[in-house]
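Appendix C: a fully annotated inverse folding record. The material below is reproduced so that readers can follow the format used throughout the book. The structure is listed first as tokens, followed by the designed sequence.
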């Protein structure tokens, strides 16, 4: 086994990127991620696999400072308990249906739900956040992106994990959006490609059309999380190349 690359502080990877490998061999996949050099990961779908993740993360020497779990309308008690077991600090709701981003009233309802969940999570020492796709920036309400409308309605305790690729796909300049949102942004998903809605078009970070240096500079406070929703080749090659590019180009938060 090759030695892990030097770790890049503040750099994580969303494990949805390697979901097929995880389903086949969770501990082996976590070890492959650690061998690339990552020390942090962002799990998804972990609530019913907390035992397996707890063992696998420990064996690979990995931490999970953030994680994705459906929260709105779900059993948050189970999500909170599983997150605490894994040492998660920030729990991110990964998606609200795209039909609920065209009317201010629907965005207000989403904000109320996230605020209520965040208040409950605080009692467990957890922070709650929201992760966007393209429709939250594609839809405009009174001239502002629906994501920014949401941000203006959230309690200070609720953070955002801005998926910079989907923000661009939705028609918002990711660096400009990040600057407008400011410190509300606690994490960013860093991904690259030609900025289309086709997941398979995505590429290793640094090899697509997004201005990744400008994105990183626009959110110096945000934890960086590498992700690919899909990839046309061996996804571990893309993860490895993304890690190397981020390490060489100021990818640490």
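Designed amino acids, in order:
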């Amino acid at each position: 086994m090759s030695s892990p690359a030097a770790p890049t502080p503040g750099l994580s990877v969303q494990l949805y990127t390697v979901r097929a490998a995880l389903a086949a061999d969770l501990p082996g996949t976590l070890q492959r991620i650690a061998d690339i050099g990552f020390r942090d990961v962002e799990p998804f779908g972990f609530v019913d696999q907390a035992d397996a993740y707890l063992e696998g993360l420990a064996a690979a020497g990995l931490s999970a400072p953030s994680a994705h779990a459906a929260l709105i309308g779900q059993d948050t008690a189970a999500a909170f308990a599983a997150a605490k077991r894994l040492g998660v600090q920030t729990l991110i709701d990964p998606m609200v249906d795209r039909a609920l981003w065209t009317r201010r009233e629907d965005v207000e309802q989403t904000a109320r739900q996230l605020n209520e969940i965040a208040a409950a999570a605080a009692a467990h020492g957890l922070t709650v956040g929201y992760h966007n796709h393209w429709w939250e920036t594609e839809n405009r309400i009174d001239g502002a992106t629906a994501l920014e409308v949401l941000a203006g309605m959230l309690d200070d305790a609720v953070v955002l994990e801005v998926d910079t690729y989907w923000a661009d796909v939705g028609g918002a300049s990711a660096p400009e959006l990040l600057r407008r949102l400011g410190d509300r942004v606690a994490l960013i998903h860093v991904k690259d490609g030609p900025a289309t809605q086709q997941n398979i078009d995505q590429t290793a970070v640094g090899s697509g059309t997004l201005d990744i240096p400008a994105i990183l500079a626009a959110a110096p406070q945000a934890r960086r999380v590498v992700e690919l929703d899909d990839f046309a080749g061996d996804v571990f090659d893309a993860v490895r190349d993304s890690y190397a590019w981020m390490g060489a180009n100021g990818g640490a938060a």
